[in-house]
Amino acid sequence: MPMETAAAISCLLMGNVLERFPRLKFCFAHGGGSFPWTLGRIQHGYDVRPDLCATRCQKPPKDFVGRFFTDSLVHDPLALQFLVRVIGEDRVILGTDYPFPLGELEPGRLIQSMDWAPPLKEKLLWENGLEFLGLDSSLFK
Fold first, then answer.
1. Sequence spans of domains, the chain
2. Which helix (H) or strand (E) holds 28?
3. 60-75 per-position pLDDT tens digit
C-alpha cells in the first residue's frame, strides 16, 4: 500500500492534475505511503530527467507539497514527526484505517503520545480534518 499511495501522488503531480484543478482536494492514506520519504528522489528525477518525469507538468513536485492532505496512520513516532515536517502540520489528518485491522487500536493515541504542544495535536486530531471537509469548527463546540 505505501508504494501504491506514493505512485498515486506522483501521478497526480506529474500529470498536472493539481495545477489544472486547483480546488480539487485529496487526502492520501498511510501517511502518504512512501511519498514523503521518496520526495527528494522524485524531485531529483523531475530535475535531471524531465523527459521521463516531467512530461505533463511545469512545476516541480516539491511545489505541490501543502496542496494535498495525508492521514497520520504511520504507527511510529519518528515517522509521524517526519511526515508532519515534510507534508506540513496543516495537511496531516487523523487516520484510523477503519474498518481494516491495521489501524490504531485507540485512534489518535500516537498523536496524543507525541511531545508536541496542544495546538499541534489539535490540528492533527480534528482541526485539519474539518479544514479538509470545509466545515466550521464552531459547529462542533
1. 2-140
2. strand 27-28
3. 999 999 999 999 999 9
